Amino acid sequence: MSRFYDINAGVPQGSVLGPTLYSLYTCDLPKTNHTLTATYADDTAILANNSDPSMASFLLQSELDQISKWLSVWRIKSSASKSTHITFTLRKGNCPEVKLAGEPLPHSDSVKYLGIHLDRRLTWKTHIKKKRDELNLRYRSLWWLLGRKSMLSLENKLLVYKTILKPIWTYGIQLWGSACNSNIEILQRYQNILLKSISHAPWFITNREVHEFLGMPTVKQEIATSCSKYKIRLDNHPNLLAQDLLLHSHKRRLKRHAILELDETFASC
């Protein structure tokens, strides 16, 4: 055991009071009326939207300038290289560059925020492919348990799949469940392969029969069930802001035939 030392700055990593003290320390993070600031722990996202790309970047830059001053006052070092600037639009081209503490934010066509991969067209194609790759790596490490040569019982194989593999692709399903059928089928095809391997099903058995035999819902059925339960939770949520998510909004999911195309800039710091 090491000796005790006094902490002159910061808090021990993993401490019980750490999250509470961080929230108190950053509760006065500057905000403007023309941008939306979303924070979760130490992940901060700032969004600005406008039909004019230059104006969207101007609104975002205005808040970033205030944040830069706030960081300087409270002696927090900013890192533009660890932040991302992304434009959500169906149009070609990106919004003008924005800077944090004089350093330009790197622009990207996709960004990861709270485990969700957001692409510029909001098609969820990038997120689903990332989850497909993650599933592939995890399945390879569990091949000795889930493969056709495994002596593990079928019941335990399903238990491993439900507790380890399934949560990988069901995370955020209430959001990416709006993806088009071609993207959803990427996960469905992979689940078909996994379930056939788990159940030792021969090649002539259909995927529908395998799902029915194992009592496993399809990806689309899982989306419908999860979204329905999520809506009920929001209806009964004590927080009025959560209930407001169910209110009808004029903003729509990005589609080519949409009458109004909105350009949005997104910065994650």
From TrEMBL:
Transmembrane segments: none
Reverse transcriptase domain ranges (all copies): 1-118
InterPro entries reported for this sequence: DNA/RNA_pol_sf (IPR043502), RT_dom (IPR000477)
PANTHER family: REVERSE TRANSCRIPTASE DOMAIN-CONTAINING PROTEIN (PTHR33332)
Stated name of the protein: Reverse transcriptase domain-containing protein
